[in-house]
Amino acid sequence: xxxxxxxxxxxxxxxxxxxxxxxxxxxxxxxxxxxxxxxxxxxxxxxxxxxxxxxxxxxxxxxxxxxxxxxxxxxxxxxxxxxxxxxxxxxxxxxxxxxxxxxxxxxxxxxxxxxxxxxxxxxxxxxxxxxxxxxxxx
Length: 138
Fold this sequence. Notes:
Helix content is 66%, strand content 4%. It has helices at 2-18, 22-46, 50-61, 74-100, 109-118, and strands at residues 124-126, 132-134.
């Protein structure tokens, strides 16, 4: 449970920090707009309630697609095709940009593993010109 809390906290911090940048802010509002558009459309055309419409919009754009909902009207199916093509690119770009705004902590496990890989191996020496020379002890 603490890991989930930390994840949610980092997510909101990343969004808060990202909203200071124009590119991130534009993508953020584009994602909000496309999710609201899809939610409104499915509510109006398919007759789903607001939560089901929002749920379908999110699982469609994240490509999860559980299959528990699907558009039944021809207009709904055509809209979904365009919605996926436009929304998937927006949402994936937003998620990638959000990852750039996550804090980098030097005490975490990932950081320790990354630092461990950066150190030269015991059997390698670094030459004066910056290239690694491999020497095997006999």
